[in-house]
């Protein structure tokens, strides 16, 4: 059932011992939302704990170092930034069908919870939680404001992408005026800083760029053999797909990675107006207009040709 | 003489045939400010022309393509985003000592104009011009809003850096609500897109990184010989200094380039709290706390050692 701020406030003011679930492969928004929600519940006198299928990556320590919370038998189950119960990972077995409040911003939200506070146009779950806290008149701690700013900044690419709302900017302004958040330092670590390994890997992957259709299509193909030679696992290349559309003429970028079973995972990105989800659907995949994916099988030369042909047809 | 919005409005409403001067080595803020000011003057019925010592780089075409203006004998001289007359380049000969209105945000502004509208805490000159237009009740065209957004976004690193003000965020929100600006496309071209040449050059420069003091100091030394081998001119490496503080442990970064006269141009960057301007001052240079520079002479091995020693002393 979809609810508004008023019902969400009533629920939060009357709950106790809450577990807050974040999604697997956690990012800045779900971690920010989880730890901000924990701060807000603490302010309301409610004990809470943040859980995640995966460990929180070290780079988010500035949010998680306050502690995920003590151990207790939860009376309340809250999910943040989770559109589908399957994204809970192993916590789905324990809490599947039992979420009492979900706070989310994904238009694809499956309405699986008893109560869902959904703002499908919001930049980030953290934007929804900030507005809820304002509605409730809860004073934020600096840590809480830091978490909420981080969620909004990371989901919007530091206010860079299409999904950035005017409200996201307004919230950033309000937080800068009212709370002592070190936004420049957060942004440096979220957007500018790289490990030496990552820097070398980007440089190596960049050298593999293939250019098609007058440079409008850029492809990076990583076979098992190439990844073995580079000494890199496929998982370490998550987040590299946007590199394919960094070149000035690139309209569509595809990163192809061979899986251990010999199939090819193809990650598409669109720089501007091409809807790559539609291209992926012709191969049985899907996703968003600007970021989508599909799986291909067969000989790599043939896979390459089918991908180029499909993009050429879209350009025509 | 420093003036406020009211005097600036009176001046603009009563001027005619204006030349708008932008600074040499033009960037997103001075180009945005120049062309936005031209749009505002057009709205007021005043003929104008934007001039610059250098050609406007092609990547700013979306702002400059409306045209810099026709040729006429100026009755009014306006400078935007120019802290010091010497930054006018060859236009200093013509308009030096004759600027009637300067609109700027640099605290270092020399107060060289008859009237200076200075907002030293503003993120960008474009922030000052937006607020002035609001004060005057001038309705912005989409092109004008696009120019102002671009200036604010580029000077703040897309709202990433310390210099970003709450007001910058509020203006972005207001412009997104009121004008049809394609901010995501602007940001893609200003921040994400690279030419193939630039991408290869970054990769090459990255490989030259030297690590000192446990990784807290990163240095890139480009001697004439190295630049010759890379087939690159020193000027092409403008804007590369921030690469030196991209590594996670880097506190201070120095890019050293040998000039044709054999001296070394050293560009310092600080990632966090180290004041690199103070370090540069010990070598007769200066600048800002997070970005400064100096010139060194002598043997490169000796230059390297003196630079490392100076940074070590600062860390101690």
Give the fraction of residues assigned to helices of chain A: 25-40%
**Number of spatially distinct domains of chain A:** 2
CATH class of the largest domain in chain A: Alpha Beta
Q: Name the overall outline of chain A.
A: elongated
Find the biggest chain interface. A-B, 40 and 40 residues
Whole-number radius of gyration of chain A? Answer: 21 Å
**How far apart, in Å, are the first and last alpha carbons of chain A?**
44 Å
Assign the CATH architecture of the largest domain in chain A. Answer: Alpha-Beta Complex
Name the structural class of chain A.
alpha/beta
CATH fold node name of the largest domain in chain A: inorganic pyrophosphatase (n-terminal core)
Description:
Two copies of one chain form a homodimer. By secondary structure, the first copy, chain A, is α/β, with parallel strands linked by helices. Chain A folds into two domains: 5-191, inorganic pyrophosphatase (n-terminal core) (Alpha-Beta Complex), CATH 3.90.1640.10; 196-315, Roll (Diaminopimelate Epimerase, Chain A, domain 1). Chain A has twelve helices and eleven strands. Chain A has helices at residues 5-13, 28-43, 61-64, 91-95, 125-136, 142-155, 166-178, 183-192, 196-206, 224-230, 276-281, 300-315; strands spanning 18-21, 48-51, 76-80, 101-104, 115-118, 210-212, 217-222, 252-258, 264-270, 286-287, 291-296. Chain A has a six-stranded mixed sheet with strand order 6-7-8-9-11-10. A five-stranded parallel sheet of chain A has the order 2-1-3-4-5. Chain A is elongated. The model of chain A has no long low-confidence stretch (mean pLDDT 94). The interface between A and B is large, with 40 and 40 residues.
């Amino acid at each position: 059932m979809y609810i508004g701020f008023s019902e969400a406030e009533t629920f939060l003011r009357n709950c106790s011992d809450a577990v807050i679930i974040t999604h697997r492969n956690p990012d800045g928004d779900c971690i920010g939302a989880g730890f901000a929600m924990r701060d807000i519940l603490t302010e309301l006198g409610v004990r809470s704990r943040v859980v995640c299928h995966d460990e929180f990556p070290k780079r988010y320590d500035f949010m998680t170092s306050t502690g995920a919370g003590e151990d207790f038998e939860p009376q309340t189950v809250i999910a943040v930034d989770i559109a589908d119960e399957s994204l809970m990972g192993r916590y789905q077995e324990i809490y599947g069908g039992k979420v009492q409040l979900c706070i989310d911003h994904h238009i694809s939200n499956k309405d699986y919870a008893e109560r869902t506070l959904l703002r499908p146009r919001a930049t980030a779950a953290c934007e929804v939680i900030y507005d809820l806290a304002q509605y409730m008149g809860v004073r934020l701690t600096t840590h809480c404001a830091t978490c909420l700013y981080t969620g909004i900044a990371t989901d919007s690419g530091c206010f860079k992408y299409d999904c950035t709302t005017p409200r996201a900017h307004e919230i950033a302004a309000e937080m800068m005026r009212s709370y002592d958040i070190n936004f420049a330092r957060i942004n440096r670590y979220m957007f500018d800083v790289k490990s030496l390994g990552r820097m070398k890997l980007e440089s190596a992957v960049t050298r593999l760029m293939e250019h098609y259709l007058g440079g409008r299509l850029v492809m990076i193909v990583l076979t098992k053999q190439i990844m073995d030679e580079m000494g890199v696992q496929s998982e370490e290349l998550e987040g590299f797909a946007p590199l394919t559309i960094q070149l000035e003429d690139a309209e569509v970028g595809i990163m192809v990675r061979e899986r251990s079973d010999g199939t090819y995972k193809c990650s598409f990105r669109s720089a501007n107006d091409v809807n790559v989800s539609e291209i992926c659907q012709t191969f049985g995949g899907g996703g968003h207009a600007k970021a989508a994916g599909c799986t291909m099988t067969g000989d790599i030369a043939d896979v390459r040709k089918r991908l180029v042909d499909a993009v050429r047809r879209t350009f025509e």
